[in-house]
């Protein structure tokens, strides 16, 4: 399989390949169209579009073939008695796609909070009704004050495809151990600073920006939360705050090392109201000891008047655990081949980046 | 037969040629088009069958009033235009 990095932006999908020791753009796709999610399994690539006028779409490319549009996930007819549901029953956008651990199975996390499953490689999708029809789902808060909550993270246990965790902005961590037939909210130990005092500690009040788990030790899950970094060693049930993160604790993205449960990367920013890098310097924070301490990595990253923000899905790690990629709201794209010690940027001025993803086997 | 015409902005994604269709309402006319071209439906309507927020439909120069159930009546000779409302940047 060829090494590839896919970069989804506000104005198209960019495909990068290694060329003489540097990553370079090898192809462009969907130029002009917003890309909201990407998944590349071997030579099969899925691209979710978020068309401003015409809705959320899903396309697939197999090998060297052309792109083919697939039926996008769709919500069932809204029942008459669901008139007071605060969330729309229509696909807003596909926010994340993950392989389901068995051939042909894919999961899609969406706005307005629907989780969809395909068992035929994306040809058809069905809403996970067990999660959507839970009464608590109506308490989910919209992203950025909007009306649509979003499932930003779907974690499948590499050893058991029926063991699923989803992270919701804003509604905590939900778990199923029966393939999605039933769900419960599981996250204890987080707090949400911006909520009223009596609600700060409620599991459903937690603003899960992004979850990442160690593939080799799936008990270990990292969370970049709205107001800090948390870590769980029991599959997302109990969390403790990682206070050593620096230079700040706010951010969106997290990447977990595929084999070392103590290593993870974050992209800290000035919190909340401002959402810019500290002091105009883009940095990555890496821990190698489970969050007890962090190194701040900056070699090759902009260190003067840089206001790049890295969204939830715009920090990626490949299966080696050494190669990372990061894309920003200003269109900055950086790749590291040495665990983040050094970064280089391909020759390009890209649109705002929503997602970066390496092709996986 | 009414004629349904689609914005050329759709051509990047799929074919949407003008179609002569029968129907008493704009919803029936669109449904007749989508029966022949099912992939087009999701570009014009949301999951509940309402017009997408940023899609406009005009019947002989008048914007449709019922964007949810598409019940506006149409005449046999009407021109129905489906186009995008301006958004974005």
CATH superfamily annotation of chain A: YVTN repeat-like/Quinoprotein amine dehydrogenase
Number of helices of chain A: 1
- Give the name of the CATH superfamily of chain B: Beta-grasp domain
The separation of the N and C termini of chain B measures 38 Å
This entry's quaternary arrangement is: heterodimer
Poorly predicted runs of chain A: none
Sheet with most strands of chain B: 5 strands, mixed
- Give the strand content of chain A: 35-45%
**Which two chains share the most extensive interface?**
A-B, 17 and 19 residues
Helix content of chain B: 10-25%
CATH-level-2 architecture of chain A: 7 Propeller
Supply the helix-strand structural class of chain B.
alpha+beta
Give, in spatial order, the strands making up the sheet with the most strands of chain B: 2-1-5-3-4
Helix/strand-derived category of chain A reads mainly beta
Distance between the termini of chain A: 8 Å
User: What is the radius of gyration of chain B computed over CA atoms, rounded to a whole number of angstroms?
Assistant: 12 Å
Residues in helices of chain A, as a percent range: under 10%
How does CATH name the architecture of chain B?
Answer: Roll
- CATH class identity of chain A: Mainly Beta
């Amino acid at each position: 399989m060829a090494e590839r990095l896919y970069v989804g932006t506000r104005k198209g999908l960019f495909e990068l390949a290694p060329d003489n020791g540097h990553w370079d753009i090898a192809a462009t796709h969907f130029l002009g169209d917003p890309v909201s999610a990407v998944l590349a399994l071997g030579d099969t690539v899925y691209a979710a579009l978020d068309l401003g006028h015409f809705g959320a779409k899903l396309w697939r490319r197999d090998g060297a073939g052309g792109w083919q549009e697939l039926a996008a996930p769709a919500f069932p007819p809204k029942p008459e008695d669901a008139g007071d549901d605060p969330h729309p029953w229509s696909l807003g956008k596909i926010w994340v796609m993950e392989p389901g651990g068995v051939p042909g199975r894919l999961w899609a996390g969406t706005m307005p909070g629907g989780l969809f499953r395909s068992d035929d490689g994306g040809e058809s999708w069905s809403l996970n009704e067990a999660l959507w029809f839970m009464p608590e789902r109506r308490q989910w808060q919209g992203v950025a004050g909007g009306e649509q909550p979003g499932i930003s993270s779907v974690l499948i246990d590499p050893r058991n495809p029926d063991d699923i965790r989803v992270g919701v902005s804003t509604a905590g961590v939900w778990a199923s151990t029966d393939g999605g037939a039933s769900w419960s909210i599981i996250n204890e130990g987080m707090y949400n600073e911006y909520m009223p005092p009596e609600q700060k500690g409620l599991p459903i009040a937690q603003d899960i920006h992004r979850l990442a788990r160690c593939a080799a030790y799936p008990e270990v899950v990292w969370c970049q939360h709205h107001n800090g970094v948390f870590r769980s060693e029991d599959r997302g049930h109990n969390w403790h705050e990682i206070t050593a993160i620096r230079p700040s604790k706010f951010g969106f993205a997290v990447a977990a090392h595929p084999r070392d449960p103590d290593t993870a990367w974050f992209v800290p920013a000035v919190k909340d109201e401002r959402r810019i890098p500290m002091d105009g310097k883009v940095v990555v924070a890496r821990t190698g000891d489970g969050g007890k301490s962090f190194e701040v990595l900056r070699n090759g990253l902009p260190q003067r008047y840089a206001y790049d923000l890295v969204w939830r899905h715009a920090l990626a790690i490949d299966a080696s655990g050494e190669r990372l990629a990061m894309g920003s709201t200003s269109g900055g794209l950086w790749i590291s081949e040495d665990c983040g010690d050094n970064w280089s940027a391909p020759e390009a001025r890209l649109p705002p980046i929503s997602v970066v993803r390496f092709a996986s086997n | 037969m009414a004629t349904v015409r689609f914005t050329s902005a759709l051509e990047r994604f799929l074919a949407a040629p003008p179609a002569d269709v029968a129907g008493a309402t704009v919803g029936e006319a669109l449904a007749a088009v989508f029966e022949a071209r099912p992939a087009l439906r999701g570009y014009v309507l949301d999951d509940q069958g309402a017009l997408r927020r940023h899609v406009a439909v005009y019947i002989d120069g008048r914007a449709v009033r019922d964007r949810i159930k598409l019940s506006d009546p149409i005449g046999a000779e009407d021109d129905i235009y489906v186009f995008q409302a301006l958004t974005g940047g």
